[in-house]
Amino acid sequence: MAIRFRLGDLNAVIGGYLKPHTRCTWSPSTQRLLYSRNMKLYLLLALTASSVAQAAQLAFPGAEGFGRYAVGGRQGAVYKVTNLNDSGTGSLRDAVSKPNRIIVFDVGGVIKISERIVVSKNIYIAGQTAPGGGIVVYGNGWSLSNANDSIVRYITIRMGKGGTSGKDAIGIADGKNIIFDHVSVSWGRDETFSINGDVTNVTIQNAIIAQGLVSHSCGGLMQTDGGVSLFRNLYIDNKTRNPKVKGVNDFQNNVVYNWGGGGGYIAGDSQADSYVNIINNYFISGPDTTVTAFTRGNSFFHAYVKDNFYDSNRNGKLDGAALCEKTSCYSDIDFVKTPYNYPAPTALTPQAAVELVLKSVGNSLHRDSVDTALIDQVKSYGTKGGQISDEKEFGGVGEIANGAALKDSDGDGIPDEWETKNGLNPNDAADVLLSSAEKMQFKNLIIALHSIGASCSALRPPIERRATTEIPSDSFSSLETYWNYLYPWGATHNGGARMDKEHVSVTDGVLTLTAEPRDDQEDPIHYLSGAIHAKSTFTVSAGGGYDISAEFVAPVDRGTWPAFWLNAASGWPPEIDIAEWKGSGKISFNTFNTSDEVTALDRDYPNPEEWHSVRAELRDENGHDVRVKFFLDGVEQTTQYGRDYIGAGLRLIVNYQTEGSSGSPGPTTPTTFQVRNVEVISLN
After folding, report:
1. Active site residue 615
2. Candidate list 74, 241, 627, 676, residue with the active-site label
3. CB contact at 8 A, 396 and 211
4. Which terminus in the chain has less CB density within 10 A, N or C?
5. What is the set of domains in the chain, with CATH numbers?
6. For the chain (length 684 residues), average pLDDT per consecutive 10?
7. What does pTM read for this prediction?
8. CA 296 to CA 248: how far, in whole Å?
């Protein structure tokens, strides 16, 4: 069943995979670039020469955290799982029994196992290749101890009551460089997913860790000094240890739901030192929750905590609040002032993390009835959920469709259809590793077997090559060439100032908007101030985007409300507040989907009398929605999403409003908002 490659570096199998139900939409120019080389969108993933150096290191596109550089079978063999047997030739157990393999699946369904599966070194388990309903492994747990440089993606592991007593659904006692992505793990007899001992560089991302069986019912121990990253995971229906952390750990953008009396996040509970980040997570009480989100911390647990939310009211709505950064919210831990310099994820707000979990956590290419029910619990926001002692209480493992594999005559893992379309020989396994000289300027092909799974952007030529400047950084030197005065709709908007052309000035390329207190205006107007808006309208097209940046000296006192923002050219939303200061001493980054559905983030804004830079990167996410990354002084702050923003025209506005949302009364003397180096680069 194993076909060994006869050429060198195997950097060329199975990249990222499209989210379920994703439909990519391409501009005509992008379609020409893609199809002119006979690229079959559902089969080919490729990295351009400009990004290949990074890709050669990452386990796969989107790998993050401590385990992001796991090798996973390079310079090894492809092994096809061809049956659902517990053991023997063509089985999953046989596939992982020897090192240096990339494991793909010609079958989908339930693999019922009696003994634990032990995974060897340098293994890539590519569950995304399984047809039908994917792969569910049921009946016992897995050990990845000493499974160095392994990658596990898109697979479901359900241990169950019949599994070995006192064992975990997944356990790692030693090893290094391991990453799990989009796995669903449940029904552990001891812990559900645990890492202990001499373990170095592990990432668990986009995973479901669920329903440890009562009476133990534990999410898991994360106890190693070698570094564990936990990003965008869902811990659900575990009585305790959601997780229990000791050592070096980075816990970001996770959702923890319906923990029991044993505790949610357990902060060390140890005399050994721990050094952790806890950032942008959301804790949601469920029917079984009887204790606060954080327990059992002490002075040995050194933590940077920021923007963690807790929804404790169980009212069916997601309406939690940020936890205070005090021991009353986090137990008796030692708070540190700066985050530990661990390999960070793409940042999301806690609210965006919940949204992402609902869409794509776990084995989301093959979301089965169990995971669907768990996600429905989260959507109830406190009203549904329950811990179980036997999987039968939750309906058991269910039925999983087998599906049909694509034809692959030479067994090299590349379907015949793709090989024929791209000039390869479907009967010659050696041609899997053709290099960039012959193929589309790519150093290596990255083949997507059987299933769509990558982001649309992974299939797109690099958009930087299409960059055009629509507003240059010196546009204020010829202001009226690029800008109009006032708002696009007139002189007033949601505050205490009327915009006036005479309160706009430019000196040496610096735009100054001056808010002047006036007593000759009718309420609610108490100021005359300045605003400009770009003459152009900006539209993110399918496959495209924008980079929008500027530098500011912005007032932050009560009653001052400067802003740099995008608003709908027609109707509302969209709205993206690239930077907004609302009289609180902070800077805000906001994206509106409706008036009630707003993703917002406030950040400290030190030294407001100095120049600071702000940048927003707008990108097509999936042909419908726009992903927005916000940067302050070159440091990424958050990622937000605008629903159905593709094709919607946007107006760029710079204004200095007063009072309103920034409080009142405002300043009693004139104040200014200064702006320079505004630049808009189109990537459409």
Report:
1. no
2. 241
3. no
4. N
5. 51-394 (2.160.20.10), 466-682 (2.60.120.200)
6. 32 32 41 34 29 54 92 82 97 97 93 98 92 96 97 97 95 97 97 96 98 94 97 98 97 97 92 96 97 96 96 96 95 95 90 92 94 97 96 95 82 68 71 39 31 40 60 95 96 96 97 97 96 96 92 97 96 95 96 90 94 96 90 92 94 97 94 97 90
7. 0.64
8. 17
